[in-house]
Design a protein that fits this description.
This protein has eleven helices and eleven strands. With 326 residues, the chain is of the alpha/beta class. The protein has two domains: 6-142 and 263-305, 3-Layer(aba) Sandwich (Rossmann fold); 144-259, Phosphofructokinase domain (Rossmann fold, 3-Layer(aba) Sandwich), CATH 3.40.50. The strands form two sheets. It has a seven-stranded mixed β-sheet with strand order 3-2-1-4-5-10-11, with helices on both faces. Strands 7-8-6-9 form a four-stranded parallel β-sheet, sandwiched between helices. Helix 5 packs across helix 6 (179-187). Bound molecules: 6-O-phosphono-beta-D-fructofuranose.
Length: 326
């Protein structure tokens, strides 16, 4: 087992609230154990460019409550080339970094899988994404905050929708995953929820609107994930308005407000547990695994398994939405 003495920490891909809390926990745990810590700015792109600096425990003071990431983040196309990965490896070597903590989502771990096919350096990942689309953990850092931001916004929209007897289509984030839509839709009592994991039957959606109209239901809220197979709020708005020209329809895209803001208590605790666990895992010889929490217990899942499978959407939940919207 290689002794880890210098740890590099980075955040990569879309930022998520709680990333700072994870960075803080990893830095402080490493310092506690007498390891040298290096921050790698802007994810894999910063790794390629050698945007790497020495971090001390005080560099992570007063960040546990802040959204965004003090390490900055990026989506690097260059890293997905052989040349990019080689440059990144050379930068790590020149700084003497012999352990990595990678905080990110699907793209981060896909990048890691490719990198570690070519180069060997101990690495442990943390699930940092609002999308909650990684296997190997029940929750990802940032999901709870993002979904609560969506809930707050949808509740506000419902007030005005109710006042005007309007049908509202609300698009939430999730290019490939419908968890934010599913959870915020259920929590806000949406009449319909459309997600990428299930085929959207637009005729059925329109039929449900028609039934609600006949029953004189005041409000009809549809929450749609941006990556739904039928399309997002724009496409849905056009379909609804053309079938029901007499209806008062509005749409809203919540967008990046879901990625920002102060992390919830749940996200701060999750990030702290996982940041601490990642450094501990590196010290005890674990590598190329993501730390996650499943049923309250800490588990480690190989990077390739985290991205191969998508956490499954329960059929009961889909059925429940229809029942509760009756
Ligand atoms: O980080 C995940 C995510 O927020 C997805 O839900 C969304 O599709 C995507 O990132 C947006 O990415 P960008 O900020 O690069 O446009």
């Amino acid at each position: 087992m290689q002794t880890i003495s210098k740890i590099g920490i980075m955040t990569s891909g879309g930022d998520s609230p709680g990333m700072n809390a994870a960075v803080r926990a990893a830095v402080r745990t490493a310092v506690y154990h007498g390891l040298e810590v290096y921050g790698i700015r802007r994810g894999y792109q910063g790794m390629i460019e050698g945007d790497i600096y020495r971090m001390e425990a005080t560099d992570v003071s007063n960040i546990i409550q802040r959204g965004g990431t003090i390490l900055k983040t990026a989506r690097s196309k260059e890293f997905m080339t052989d040349e990019g990965m080689h440059k990144a490896y050379e930068q790590l070597q020149s700084h003497g970094i012999n352990g990595l903590v990678l905080i990110g989502g699907d793209g981060t771990f896909r990048g890691a899988v490719e990198f570690f096919k070519r180069y060997t350096i101990p690495a442990v990942g943390l699930p940092g994404t609002i999308d909650k689309d990684l296997a190997g953990t029940d929750y990802t850092i940032g999901f709870d905050t993002a979904v609560n931001t969506a809930v707050e916004a949808i509740d506000k929209i419902r007030d005005t929708a109710e006042a005007h007897n309007r049908l509202f289509i609300i698009e939430v984030m999730g290019r490939d995953a419908g968890y934010i839509a599913l959870h915020s839709g259920i929590a806000c009592g949406a009449e319909d929820i459309l997600i990428p994991e299930t085929n959207t039957d637009i005729d059925a959606v329109l039929k449900r609107i028609d039934m609600d109209e006949r029953r004189k239901k005041n409000v009809h809220i549809i929450v749609v994930a941006e990556g739904d197979d039928f399309g997002g709020a724009k496409e849905l708005y056009a379909a609804v308005q053309s079938r029901f020209p007499m209806l008062d329809v509005r749409s809203a895209i919540l967008g990046h407000i879901q990625r920002g803001g102060s992390p919830t208590c749940a996200d701060r605790v999750l990030a702290s547990r996982l940041g601490y666990a990642a450094v501990d895992a590196l010290r005890t010889g674990k590598t190329q695994v993501m730390a996650g929490i499943v049923n309250g217990e800490l588990v480690y899942t190989p990077f390739e398994n985290c991205v191969k499978q998508h956490a499954v959407i329960s059929k009961d939940m889909i059925e429940m939405i229809r029942v509760l919207a009756v």
